[in-house]
Amino acid sequence: MHLRHAILLALLWPLSAPAATPDPTPPDFLTEIEGKQALDWVRAHNQHAFDVLQNDPRYAGFHADALAVAEARDRIPTPRLIGGRIYNFWQDATHRHGVWRSVDLASYRSASPAWHTVIDLDALSAAEHANWVWKGVVCEEPAERRCLVGLSEGGEDAETQREFDLQTGTFVEGGFVLPRSKQSVVWEDRDTLLLARDWGAGSLTASGYPFIVKRLRRGQALDQAAEVMRGAPSDISDAPELMVDGQGHRLALIHRGLTFFTAEYRRVTPNGLLPLPLPPKSVAIALVANRLAVKLDQDWQPSAGPALPAGSLVSLDADHPEAAPEMIFRPGPRQSVEAESVGATRNGLVAVIYDEVRGGAVTFTPTATGWRQTRLKLPQNVAVTLVDSDPASDTAFLQVTGFLTPSQLWQVDQAAGTATEIKSLPAQFDASGLVVEQQEATSTDGTRIPYFIVHRRAMKLDGANPTELTAYGGFAVSSVPTYSGAIGRLWLAKGGVYVLANIRGGGEFGPAWHEAGRKTNRQRVFDDFAAVGRDLIARHITSTRRLGIRGRSNGGLLMGVEFTQHPELWRAVIIGVPLLDMRHFETMAAGASWVDEYGSQSKPDEAAFLDRISPLQALRPGVAYPEPFIFTSTKDDRVGPVHARRFAWRLDQLGVPFLYYEDTEGGHAGTANLDEIAHEQALEATYLAQRLRD
Fold this sequence. Notes:
The structure is a single chain. By secondary structure, the protein is α+β, with helices and mostly antiparallel strands. Helix 3 runs antiparallel to helix 14. Strand 27 and strand 28 form a beta hairpin. 21% of the residues lie in helices and 33% in strands. An 8-stranded mixed sheet has the order 31-32-34-33-35-36-37-38. The chain has a domain of 308 residues: Alpha/Beta hydrolase fold, catalytic domain (Rossmann fold), CATH 3.40.50.1820.
């Protein structure tokens, strides 16, 4: 037994604990998120990881490089248009918690914007003896003077909301204050909120989200709010939404999330709630010229008009939604558009369209005869992301980036159908001599799986190249090329190969690509990823000795499955903020909300599949597993740290070496502050160096 294992068992277990065939059931104390025994266990494992990784002479250099990238002052400040000004949340070496600041558009476009600090989160945290993490703002439209500021203690999803006056630059005395909760809120008008939150016992779904929406008027206590809609405890989450277009039309909706991917919409009207005639798998996006833009994730035969295919963008007359919808965009077989990548301006829409996992952007303008589209002139073979769009003007912002292309910010004039580069990130690593390829692997069922490879132009095909392979493969989320200074400096510049796989379960090729990897189809996702690994080996790019894999969240589940199903393929496995106990995930943190993605133990066929693929339950004695690096966060109230704790505990019982790191702040996103981000990145880089280079 390793000395570490012996010490931990002596600290945490009675001497009578069985040594031969240990009970595979993890102990209850691991579920007590901040219990003393649990945190003692965490500290012991953290210390072991630090001893192994931080004492490596390479760690200091990795950390310095990661921190330099994270704190670089020449990063592009992400813009958000509010009230005609640019707002940005910024963290650097002197702003650990961060500052929310603003500037006018002309100054923002200059090389040295004249920023004005609106909220100093470091000062606020110090004054209130809190560890505030920024969660964004919701502003009253169209005036955009009063906003609700979201603040989270330590980075958890639950947040407090406080009313802030942008004109005076102060929190509003006697204004709206919404205590800590997972909550969704919109401004119905200047003095009225539509709000879904924890209203007390019995007001949350099994997933831990609200299902009761109420109307809260200025001056009322929370218990005086009037109920607008009550969903059911079996829902995933119910929330209000508000859309305001450039002409002043307003559309208030209640989104009732029946499952993660299906919903009902109701319009909030003076005559009460009226149903919006949309199919269950659809997303209401924005209001333009009183037309509601909708993304369809299933085929739809509306009551009027022709059938509409899944993946399309369509629009409904907001006053007469029962009328025939209009087609905005119909994607081709290898194209996709995601609801989050479509935004409204005063006179139209800006949408990011992917074709063969290559990004582009199109503007759509409503006319008397339908929607006119104009393709924006942008660089080719890059990833494109919608950063922000402004319903009060014709302005939108796009990020253009690639593995070797430092991020650029482009300003869109929707009315003119033009885009102009206004900012660019200086190179954060030396990309000379590096190239990007797109290859394909063949999965178990014959499906072509595309993947990107970033490598040195002079790379030898001798199987000796240290290679990091990553993917996500779930929830219709597309994995696209992204410029990362940390990956560049800590991996590519050291001769490493970086691979991003576009496996099924994602949204790269529309709803069908996602559906192919959902629930009991999910083995295809795992097979796709393994196929890419084997293809890299077959092409002599790398070998099992030099191949490592990494994933977070749903990608952490993917890594856990690959760890247990194909331990012979990988020498390094990084498992981040993961789901690993799929037998019990429905009762852990927000797990019940993901039944529509993973399946449920209440259905025999789905339960059998989950039990078969669950990484925790799949661990077996006598298997030659690679030594993994597992990381999670105590403050993660979405997936929760218990998955990672149970998995690590079971590895310990089996005598399998592993490294475990649990950050005490940062939440599921792991973005509490730049120091912690750099620390975690340096730990990963050191682990990969030890496993794949040494």
